[in-house]
Amino acid sequence: MSNRTFTVMVFAIAIAIIMASRFIPNEYFFQAAYTVLQFVVLATAWNILGGYTGYVNFGTAAFFAVGAYSTVFLYNAFQAPLVVMILAGTLVAGLLGLGVGYLTLRLRGVYFAIATLALAVVLYTFVINWDYVGGARGAYLLQPREVPFGFARYTHLLYSAMVLMTAAALAVARAIETSTLGRGLAAIRDDELAAESAGVPTLRLKLFSATVSGALMGMAGTTFPYYLSYIEPSSAFSLSYAVNSIAMPLIGGMMSWLGPLIGAILLGSIQQLVQVTVSSAWNLLIVGVMLVLFVTLAPNGIMGWVDAWRKRKDR
After folding, report:
1. I want to staple 159 with a disulfide (CB 3.0 to 4.6 A). Which of 30, 82, 233, 255 is the partner?
2. Any residues with CB less than 8 A from the CB of 304 and at least 6 apart, and which?
3. Residue of 82, 46, 83 whose CA lies nearest to 64
């Protein structure tokens, strides 16, 4: 299947899901689905740099927060439409990924991971001291009373926007994976020195990967302030974003665009179920337990296990 056909198909499915959800009366469905889809975008974005390229990024929360606070800034400054906020937050996060990548992608292994973690700490300190976006006390964003496109509630509109953003993230990830860029990123992941010796433009490809990954992470955060109607630094820079965005591709499989999707739906759904039946405090424990199980029983994730099963069946 060509990338163009896949893109058309995934957006057609997204529109069909949006239309079908209009007949769902349960409001909790939209809140839970929004959160799960948000993690699908974050896991897919992380996998472009972490899975395809082999550079582990602990700064997911930083890019997510940049997207969220771009929305807050545009809300306070211009009362900008939601579409403008999404595009602006995606662009700003992408530029941040490009800049940070240019400064840090010469580092490797644990040194790069620590640098991305430091980025989140630096941006968190900056935000809590920036009064225009609420600082440490946070900021309120009132959802518009008039909901466009005939949606019953603004939450439904945000859910629909997240469905479309998920489709866009999956289309981008699949296009990268099946292109010459994807093969170059895989060469960097397997052996960067050998790839560079063979003529692969490693720095250029890594910068591309960091930019796209950062942009998609920021895109996932752009609707977050409207979703809660309130945002403060601790929620935007939550550790759960960094942990889940790494755990979900590991569980689903990092070598394919489908792995983060499977991992995010599986782990995100379990977390939402536990949150309403037990307590959200169990979420990180669930992530830890599942990581231990999958690293032990299926080191390459669900997709790796499926591929190994297919090879055994073919033999």
Report:
1. 30
2. 253, 255, 298
3. 46
